[in-house]
Amino acid sequence: MSLQLPPLALYVHVPWCIRKCPYCDFNSHQADNDIPEADYVKALRFDLQQDQVLAQGRKITSIFFGGGTPSMLSATAIGQILHDAENIIGFEPDIEITLEANPGTFEQEKFSGFRAAGVNRLSIGIQSFNDRQLTLLGRVHARDEALRAVGVARAAGFDNLNLDLMHGLPEQSIDDAKADLQQAMDLGPEHLSWYQLTIEQNTAFYSAPPVLPEEEILADIQDAGVALLAGAGYEQYEISAYALAGKRARHNLNYWEFGDYLGIGAGAHGKITFPAENKIVRLWKTRLPKHYLDAAHSQKISTNLNGHQNVFGGGSDLLTPESLPLEFMMNALRLHEGVPITYFNQRTGQDWSMLADNWARLEAQGLVEHCDGYIRPTVLGRRFLNRVLQAFIHNDD
Amino acid sequence: MTDLSHIRNFSIIAHIDHGKSTIADRFIQMCGGLSDREMEAQVLDSMDLERERGITIKAHSVTLHYKARDGKTYQLNFIDTPGHVDFTYEVSRSLAACEGALLVVDAGQGVEAQSVANCYTAIEQGLEVIPVLNKMDLPQAEPDRVAQEIEDIIGIDATEAVRCSAKSGMGMEDVLEELVRLVPPPVGDVDAPLQALIIDSWFDNYLGVVSLVRVKQGTLRLKDKIITKTIGKAQIVDGVGVFSPKPTQLKELKAGEVGFVVAGIKDIHGAPVGDTITHAQTPDVEALEGFQKIKPQVYAGMFPISSDDFEDFREALAKLTLNDASLFYEPESSDALGFGFRVGFLGMLHMEIIQERLEREYDLDLITTAPTVVFEVVKRGGEVIYVDNPSKLPDPGSIDEMREPIVEANILVPQEHLGNVITLCIEKRGVQKDLQFTGSQVSVKYELPMNEVVTDFFDRLKSVSRGFASLDYSFVRFQAASLVRLDVLINSEKVDALAIIVHRDKAHGMGRSLTEKMKELIPRQMYDVAIQAAIGGQIVARSTVKALRKDVTAKCYGGDATRKKKLLEKQKAGKKRMKQVGSVEIPQAAFFAVLKIDS
Question: What is the pLDDT of residue A190?
Fold first, then answer.
């Protein structure tokens, strides 16, 4: 009933990689270093110009360059994109700008350029410090490059670093996993995304599954890791996210708090609230880089995304009232602290009473709690979050 | 008085895979009932379920016109019959509408026990039985041996039996000629007061109740005002006709004919099977002998997974009972499963089919408890009660004697598998009553506890005989037995819907197998699940389903929300047929664990 405009973030997708990793189900396409950078930057500008209306007067609180491998772009290109974004939409004063980077030597050379272009947070895709694991994961970098990357980033002026690290890797023991994690912490990043390898559909691992550690080992790794991280001052604030005080990833927090975001680039997803029309829409851009680039050239007829026109449009979903409890909870309940209960009404437009029964049942089972105005999962609820979320699935969906 | 000499009403008695449906299809094709384009294999099996399982569950009818070699055209009314041991009752209904029956026997496999039973029913009802040897196109056909077997086992002369192949078409015309020659035409007076027997009724969402009738006397016309003898409420006939096999509207159905009647009856109990239809102006006409209401042999609790579906479930059962008079139900409430119904079935196949029909045709999600037979319990003081639900068994201290139902099972089996069949019967506490060698099959008679027969006996019999043994059985008496109730406890709470009644000698072993089986069938959950089996408060077996350590999706950002949502939905759909009992989710399969134990 009282749908409000939440904060707005911007996601920029860069759909190319030197090599596709066997576990990755993101929209990435193999390319050598000769990616059509200039054309892509132009297309992104055109994309954002059409999406400008979706901002509805808001400025951007955070930007995330994801991929693919955004660090394949030159610092100049990144600078141009940021310049365009600031001109077209505008930045909040304390904007967080994150770029995902590979720790390879080639990328490291660009780190200072990225910093100079305005990127203020670097997320380095380490995944593992074990060379054998890196090979199994199909990564193009090696342990020593990974170790060096943090120093290079510091030297380039980054004071806000994230390392992406996986666990539950093929053949990994508890000690292996702990060693990997300890190594990451020793490098002193402000933030760690430490997440368990999952075999997703449409990946090489899905069609030829590697032998993963047994469930008991996976759970032991998780427990040991959480303890290790907590001991070093990394607070777990989301299922797989750990940060030093004040260093949480604001861009990701915005997803989990059911904020809005624009998504530009091939296959990028956005989520936009329209309080005036009392609706929330998920929209995404055409997926293949070639189609995306062609759309910019050919003055193609724009695609209707639930009332919004964009020539890069791939599709859209109007979130139905029945689907909103799940949409909201599958984000909000990932957060250890949860979210203010008022967000549910403000950010879905739905009345809390529609899920009060479900909530009470989950509360009785000790899976969720509501205190100090916040709704959040309990320790048990975090371990069995999928089961908690199933309670919010509308039966006729 | 009209001439009825051109009418032949007949059924086909055949074992499930002896080719009845193929014969029916061939008849329809030969008589031009459907164009080739319309000819879909086995047109008579109209329920999806029937076609999928290759069995006939309900009686159907089809009217065909056959130009015989004598130059005359005959009206052939074929009433299809089910061919499984569970559906004997339906068979006797179909036969009541006929003057003759084709006994179709696979010329390779020989006579099958259920056909023997059905054949006797036909002979008792005064039908002319015409043996036919089918599947003559197969290399293993041994018509002479099988003809001898028919004579030995059933006692009808089969030396002249038509040898045919419905598949290749060979001899099929001869079958029709024999039918015309041997089946007597019906007798009846088209001008007499109307008497029509309701053979079957079903509910059509557009038409209301549709009934299949055999007109014995008089004429049933469009716009007639009719009543049924037991209900007496006048209705106008909106439609009469025959299935040819497509529904074909006619102006009337005359004495001797078989066809359908639609009379705008919206109440599902408006046209009970076995009732007699007559005109509103002749209410005193004598009722035809209906059908003996047969008692269900197997009972199970059925509970909607969502309690909101209870009323829909009640309505669905009421609709199903309309054309399945053997189905019995009454409300049941379970501590574990809430409100549902205790439903009585003719046998396991019947139960499976009803469950599937309820789920498919009525879109219900149900949990069915393990089936049980009815036990006779003599209480102290002499009161005799019947228990169709293990959880309702009185306190053992108040029981004087427990009696279990005993069946007489007739089994026909090729000699080389006899040893295995005997071993199985002994394992199932059987007592041999007779054994006779006939041709290449052996006819064995056993008395067996029905409890042992209704669960997995039929499947086991098939597997120990490589599919060759056949079975027919009927209840004979209740007999004292040492029986106990085996309770199942989930996390120390007794779950009433999981209790079973077993023989004391087998109870401990059963308890162990059951807890182990359930451990396999109950998925891992957030907590350990302790499964215990108990007899009279004493734990006799236990097992534990270890808790899952976690169930959480590692990553979820803005771009993959939609995919993650789909995964959750898929995961939830996988849990559809589970019922929450206390804090434990129990899948349908676990309720049937007792059926999956190799005892």
Answer: 98
For residue B450, the distance in angstroms to the closest alpha carbon of chain A comes to 41
Same domain for A226 and A360, yes or no, is no
* Minimum Cα–Cα distance from A221: chain B residue: B549
Question: Domain limits at A376?
Answer: 324-390
Tally the domains of chain A.
2
Element (H, E) at B385: strand B384-387
User: Does A386 sit within 8 Å of B552, measured CB to CB?
Assistant: yes
* Residue in B with minimal Cα distance to A197: B554
For residues A211 and A359, state if they share a domain.
no
Please tell me whether residues A32 and A157 are part of one structural domain.
yes
CATH of residue A213: 3.20.20.70
Q: Are residues A217 and A103 in the same domain?
A: yes
Q: Which of A209, A239, A255 is the last residue of a domain?
A: A255
Q: Which of A239, A256, A348, A368 to mutate to test the interface with B (most CBs of B within 10 A)?
A: A239
Angle between helical axes of B172-182 and B20-30 (0-180°, round to 10): 90
Q: Output the six-digit token pair for B347.
A: 């046998």
Single-letter amino acid code for the residue at B470: S
Selection from B31-40, B177-186, B315-324 with the highest mean pLDDT: B177-186
Tell me the average pLDDT of chain B: 85
Q: Is B1 on the interface with A (CB under 8 A)?
A: no
Q: How is B576-592 classified by DSSP, letter by letter?
A: TTEEEETTEEEEHHHHT
Task: List the single residue in B550, B561, B571 with the smallest CB-CB distance to A330.
Answer: B561
CB-based contacts of A356: which residues, under 8 Å, 6+ apart? Answer: none
A334-354 pLDDT tens trace: 999 999 999 999 999 999 999
Interface predicted TM-score of the whole assembly (ipTM), two decimals:
0.91
- Which among B550, B564, B572 has CB closest to A219? B550
